[in-house]
Design a protein that fits this description.
By secondary structure, the protein is an alpha+beta fold. The protein is about 55% helix and about 10% strand.
Length: about 110
């Protein structure tokens, strides 16, 4: 019997080195996944199953686990990047509002003269 076990441990994730300039990092909503594949054989299994077939199944399961781990890493990267871009847009909007206020004050002062 082949078992696939998922281990969730956010403490094993490396620190955020991609965006050290972020002031307000948002907590990541997704758990980090580390996948392990284990294979258990039982004596009660029928002898008709070939070892090559079992090896192929193990290889396919290992590839699936690697793809799933890559998918999790990519999803986490995209979440971090999205949060960074959202924060950047919010800061840009605040700066644009400040510039607009200063411009309106300048126009009001110029028209009052």
């Amino acid at each position: 019997m082949i078992a696939l076990k998922v281990i969730l441990n956010p403490s094993l994730h490396p620190p955020n080195r991609c965006f050290p300039h972020r002031r307000n990092p948002r907590p990541n909503k997704r758990n980090h996944c580390f996948v392990t594949v284990s294979c258990n054989t039982k004596d009660s299994e029928p002898s008709s199953s070939s070892p090559e077939g079992d090896e192929r199944k193990r290889e396919l399961l290992a590839k699936m686990a690697m793809i799933e781990a890559q998918k999790v890493r990519l999803t986490n990267f995209l979440d971090e990047r999205s949060a960074y871009l959202t924060q950047f847009a919010e800061e840009a909007n605040v700066e644009f509002d400040a510039i607009a206020e200063e411009t309106l004050k300048g126009l009001d002062e110029a028209s009052a003269r």
